[in-house]
Amino acid sequence: MTHLELARLQMACSLGFHIIFASISMVMPFLMFLAYRKYLKERNPIDLKLTKAWMKGSAILFATGAVSGTALSFQLGLLWPTFMEHAGPIFGMPFSLEGAAFFLEAIFLGLFLYGWNRIPEKLHLFFGFMVGACGLASGALVIAANGWMNAPTGFDWVNGKAENIDPIAAMFNKAWPLQAVHMLVAAFQATTTAAMGLHAFGLLKNPASGLHKRAFKYLIPLFCVAALVQPLVGDLIGKSVAERQPEKLAAMEALFETQERAPLLIGGIPDPETKTVKYGIEIPGGLSFLVHSNFTDEVKGLDAFPEDEHPPVVITHLSFQVMVGLGMTMVMMALVYIFAKWKKINLIEKKWWLKLLMVCTPIGFIALEAGWIVTEVGRQPWIIYKVMRTEDAVTPVPGLEVSLIIILVLYTFLSIMSFYLLFRLFKKSSEEEE
């Protein structure tokens, strides 16, 4: 593998790992907060048990996310110093604010963990809310930096250098708002889906468990809202990408030729050499409608751009299909639950529903990972869109094979330890209830 490929692979592994634990640590504090708020109102001991279980899970995953995020920061400086040299002064503001939000999250988490019976309950509840709020702020601010890479602004690029830098304009780039909403909603989708699968497993083992039944009272409403909102956000992002990065949209849809009445492609395997797609289903005019809100307008294909600026079509298209397919699966799950609720059918008592939730445990995170692949791979060959190529940003550091192995070992160890501790926590909570 070339040096560039090794650097990109290492960064991909690091980001792919970190995003899972960062997403969970953003959402679980809100579950903890909701359960604790309900406990303070009704004094149901099951709510208190849920609060403490989700609190401990938040603490474990926060620690894991902190370690992986620190490693990721070092890699930015070691592997991509040329990129950081030019980009750092431009989007340093959201990174600095993200660091502040992260430290506030850690402080509030500590206050919540050790504040039991030491501070007033309402203040304790407020600290629990602030853990989640600071986590969401931290995630949104990181996405501001990524949004800037997709829609760079706030500077003039003169002779290979950034001049007239405006950090405020860079931070509030055009890509940030929708990317942030899309990511945060995806975090709620993925985390609640995984948590429902875990508690479904607990209910199948112990159908009388009040703890696991109660957990669904908090998980299902959040899941349904996130699952149904996400397609609307995705539609807005699609229109935004068509305007800002049309070659990314063409790669996502494997649209090789510019067309009027451009079809929407479902499935299919692109062949960049022959510029054809095999086994796909086309909906005539569907892509034109999604982009322009009518079935006739032209959509640019990859033929409208130089070949050396084409994103990797196969991985971008397949990742996009996985993301959309799993997203629609979650939409159907939400609609089934809402229909059953309307018909006064308690799905939590149905074994087939619990087994379905178990099978679907990982799909939210698979969709989330696929979405990030679309975002990052679909921007290639640019690390800063239309400004700096990825190959020009990497630094030839020797021994990348060794560092890649070290990173993989570190993240594997962190994963095993995190899931082992979570499994022990889950098992202990179930045994205590029994």
Describe this structure in words.
The mean pLDDT is 84. It is globular, with a radius of gyration of 23 Å. Helices cover 73% and strands 6% of the residues. It is mainly alpha-helical. Strand 5 (382-384) and strand 6 (388-389) form a beta hairpin. The chain has a two-stranded antiparallel ribbon. Strands 3-4 form a two-stranded antiparallel sheet. It has helices at residues 3-42, 45-79, 81-114, 121-150, 167-171, 176-205, 210-244, 246-252, 286-292, 313-342, 351-359, 363-377, 390-393, 400-433, and strands at 156-158, 161-163, 264-271, 276-283, 382-384, 388-389. The chain has a domain at 234-397. The termini are far apart. The protein is built from 14 helices and 6 strands. Helix 2 packs parallel to helix 7 (210-244), helix 2 (45-79) packs antiparallel against helix 14 (400-433) and helix 10 (313-342) runs antiparallel to helix 12.
Outline the secondary-structure elements.
Elements: H1 3-42, H2 45-79, H3 81-114, H4 121-150, E1 156-158, E2 161-163, H5 167-171, H6 176-205, H7 210-244, H8 246-252, E3 264-271, E4 276-283, H9 286-292, H10 313-342, H11 351-359, H12 363-377, E5 382-384, E6 388-389, H13 390-393, H14 400-433
Antiparallel strand pairs: 1-2, 3-4, 5-6
